[in-house]
Design brief:
mainly alpha; 59% helix
Length: 79
């Protein structure tokens, strides 16, 4: 997509679609809705098994990124 127009209209477009966040606060990006309950259930089992919080955080980030890249729903991937 190519956007043309005045500098102000392009800057407004960018500001509306890509909001700025506070420095130092990492953005928490949620996985697609179909993936969220599956990932949360898995993370709950990790917590119940006594896995450290750092492991759970890392898995949350990794699985969320994977879900966003794959899109769709878990059934599309697992068959």
């Amino acid at each position: 997509m190519v956007l043309s127009g005045t500098y102000r209209s392009v800057a407004t477009y960018i500001d509306e679609r890509y909001p700025r966040r506070q420095p130092g606060k990492p953005a928490r990006v949620r996985p697609p809705a179909p993936w969220a309950p599956v990932i949360e259930d898995y993370l709950t089992t990790l917590a119940a098994a006594g896995q450290p919080a750092t492991t759970i955080k890392t898995r949350r980030q990794s699985l969320g990124q994977m879900a966003r890249e794959l899109g769709g729903c878990p059934a599309d991937v697992t068959g």
